[in-house]
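Form 7-S
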Amino acid sequence: MTIYRRTSVDAALYVLRDIGRDMTKTQRQVSTGLRVERASDNGAYWAISSTIKTDQKAQSAVRDALGLAAATMGIAYSAIDNAIDIVSQIKAKLVAATETGVDKDKINTDISQLKDQLRSVSQSATFNGDNWVAIGDGDDPAKPRQIPASFIRYSDGSVEVGTLNYEVDLAPVGATSSKDARYLIDDRTSGSGEYGVLTSQYFATEAGASQNYVMVKGAGNSAGQVEIGVSNTTTQSQVNEMVTVVDMMLNQMTTVGSAFGALEKRISIQSDFAQSLDDAYSRGISRLIDADMEEQSSRLTALQTQQQLGLQSLNIANASYDTVRKLFQNF
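Output:
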């Protein structure tokens, strides 16, 4: 005689199988912290979270670019601020040269040292190979300075990298003027120093000076230019012209410094906003795919208890089956 039916044993096995499957899923969520780890868990949420993750990485790159730009702008602003202080000292020296009986040659010695310092400040204001206050061969003074500032995804799926522009750095319109001097020094060999405040002769031209005064000569065509400086043969009228030209240079340097300061402030604001976006991305992804750890931990404990009870039920069912089997083993 054969016993075919083991209903209680099969029922216990089915229950244990279901519990084991649920435990595997719950354990995976507890160990990874994710309820949507693969597309098979929830295709829609997985796709959305994957796209957001790529955007978050792009946004992180933008934040890095903003940090680099902030450092670059900080150095550029410091250079402008320091140069303004030096040019102010030169202006004061020139005013002192208008006094009767003063030794202009000695004053010029101080002015020469200050001019050397101006060039040093301008050329050393470099961060990561980028200098925003001095240009040379290979630089395009008419090309706006741009900083990656945002990563934008439109509703149609297209993306774009937004930029911040150096507002003073605009392409010249019409004839070149002192307003085109957006840097401290223009050392391009193809020009005449017109894009550098310290190397442009247009301040003297617009002031109606008798000579094309510049603070320092650039590396380009400097024919007819005269560096600002005095000697015992310099006339009172010439000194007055130099004072006027230097004052105009200071005004333009203040304009450039204001533009740097405004851009530095905007970089700071954009960087804070980028950090807020990154946090928002993280919260959004978390809501879509993260597991509720408290709930899953409680569920795992419950499933472990159910598994123990299921094993006990299986043992009882097997024991009952063995008892019945023994009753018929001699038949």
